[in-house]
Amino acid sequence: MEQNNAAELSGETHRAIAVRLFNETWRLLETAGRTSEQVDEMIHCAHASRWHWGQVPDHGPKELSIGEWLISRTYAVLARPEGALWHAERCLAICEQHNLTGWLLAYAHEAIARANAAKGAVNVFAEHYEIAVKLSETVADPEDRELLISDLKAEPWFGLVNPQ
After folding, report:
1. Which of 61, 106, 152, 156 is the most buried (most CB within 10 A)?
2. Model confidence over 131-161: pLDDT tens digits?
3. At what angle do helices 102-119 and 122-136 cross, to 10 degrees?
4. Cα–Cα dist 24/73, whole Å
5. How far apart are CA 145 and CA 137, in angstroms?
6. Interior/surface letters 121-153, b for 16+ CB within 10 angstroms, e for the rest
7. Is the peptide bond before 156 cis (omega within 30 degrees of 0)?
8. pLDDT per residue over 21-68, tens digit each?
9. Cα dist from 69 to 54, 66, 164, whole Å
10. 81-97 and 102-119 helices cross at what angle (nearest 10)?
């Protein structure tokens, strides 16, 4: 049986798959009492979403940064700090390399903070959490700002932040 090669998919198809996988990852992140199969699916969906974004011909650093953030968030929620930190650092590096600012940079620092919270690295957590909070004040779009503030209040912070 002949299988499709990823290169045979159109950019639009890769984009649609990336978005669908992002949304499925987010649905699973919000699922209470996930089964081990759902955990595996969530991890695979996050990585696959990022990979598909990389296959979209006109993708940019914004999409790659968001993809790395999603993978980091997934691992942080699962209390797997090594994976969370690896992808949070990739997210921040992409932002810095491409001079991304605003909510993208704020989310990169949120990811570094969350990964370090999972690791129990209190000082690094506090530094990046504070940067993310300060950057949230500079986000021009009210919807983006509210989403960021909401995420900064969302668990898991492993007891290092009062999410109220």
Report:
1. 106
2. 999 999 999 999 999 999 999 988 888 888 7
3. 160
4. 14
5. 7
6. beebbeebbebbbebbeebeeeebbeebbebbe
7. yes
8. 999 999 999 999 999 999 999 999 999 999 999 999 999 999 999 999
9. 14, 5, 23
10. 160
How far apart are alpha carbons 33 and 17 in whole angstroms?
A: 26
Q: What are phi and psi of 98, to 5 degrees?
A: -110, 15
Yes or no: say if 92 and 108 are a contact pair by the CB < 8 Å rule.
yes
The H or E element that residue 126 is part of is helix 122-136
Instruction: For residue 23, count other CB atoms closer than 10 A to its CB.
Output: 12
SS3 117: helix
Tokens 């199969």 belong to residue: 37
CA angle 158, 71, 38 (to 5 degrees): 80
